[in-house]
Amino acid sequence: MPMTDTARNQITIILATGNCDKVRELRPLLENISPLFRVFALHEIGTDVEIEETEATLEGNALLKARAIFDLLAERFPFMIALADDTGLEVESLNGAPGVYSARYAPMHAGESPTYKDNVNHLLHSMNGIANRTARFRSVLALKGSLPSLQGPFLFEETADGVVHGSITLEPKGDAGFGYDPVFLVDSTGKTYSEMSMAEKNALSHRSLAVQQAIVALKDILAGHSIPLTDTNASL
Ligand code: IMP
Hints:
The protein is an alpha/beta fold. The chain has helices spanning 20-31, 58-73, 116-126, 198-204, 206-224; strands at 11-15, 37-41, 80-91, 134-147, 154-168, 184-186, 191-192.
């Protein structure tokens, strides 16, 4: 849809990610909240920016990205919500590592990025001989937005998180998924994420729990400012 066709009271949600799987997962969840919401990934609005994750926490990085995208696009989209996420695997016996460094855990030469396999191998190697395999996956979503209300436009920031408890297996198990999925055994199912179908994983994953919490928070914000979820109030 051309951006010039947007309804006057439409609310644009920009996903601060280039990951198509995340966009596919998030778009229907968010657009189901209200017909006023239109969800776009950065590349879909012709914006190509890479925001460096320089903070020491998942919350910090998610907020950093949401704020950067909001600031970049606020003039172009008067009513807009920038949504960003950061995810980490936190292993108890490694004092929470790889945590915020999950994507770049395995040591590499300068300028090289580790593959998922490099990171998994490094994790198993780091835990060689360690009996306590307790771990958790945690996703944090950050939202920064500007919305209309009868009292005038208002700004908000919000974070939501989702946690799944489990343990690190002694060796990879299963073929599905990505990242640390083959070595993360979910307590509640006794299966690794890689031994689950995508639907099974999405029903209980750290990311979908964070999304559900963010949706509740967003609905509360809209209700708190008497913002209708339907297109009936064209005066906003
Ligand atoms: P991001 O913040 O979503 O980019 O995630 C950072 C890193 O955590 C990724 O590069 C993956 O290695 C890992 N990761 C994130 N989500 C998952 C997941 O659902 N399964 C397995 N690994 C994940």
